[in-house]
Amino acid sequence: MKDKLKKHGKSTKYFLFRKILIISSIALLLSASIGIPVGIKIAQSYIHQRTN
After folding, report:
1. Is-contact 5 12, C-beta < 8 A?
2. Is the pTM of this model over 0.70?
3. pLDDT tens digit sequence for 15-49
4. pLDDT tens-digit profile of 3-18?
5. Which of 1, 4, 6, 10 could be cross-linked to 14 through a Cys-Cys bond (beta carbons 3.0 to 4.6 Å apart)?
6. If 0-12 CB within 10 Å is exposed, 13-18 middle and 19+ buried, where does residue 15 land?
7. Are 36 and 25 within 8 A, CB to CB?
8. Which of 21, 22, 1 is CA-nearest to residue 11?
């Protein structure tokens, strides 16, 4: 870690923030890839029930 800091001239907070940002982005992508299709199926079934 110290080598990274010396090489890039960044603080430890920068690398911590970057790691948190990457992990949260991956979590958001996974939840969206699951949540959007499920939401579409629920909406379709709701519309189908209302029309019948």
Report:
1. yes
2. no
3. 899 999 999 999 999 999 999 999 999 999 999 88
4. 666 677 778 888 899 9
5. 10
6. middle
7. no
8. 1
Residue reference for tokens 């982005």: 25
Q: Which amino acid does the sequence have at 44?
A: Q
One DSSP character per residue, 1-52 reads -HHHHHHHT--HHHHHHHHHHHHHHHHHHHHHHHHHHHHHHHHHHHHHHHH-
**Residue 14 is encoded by which pair of tokens?**
């920068």
Structure tokens at 15: 């690398």
The per-residue pLDDT for 2 is: 62
Instruction: Tell me the two tokens of residue 45.
Output: 């079934």
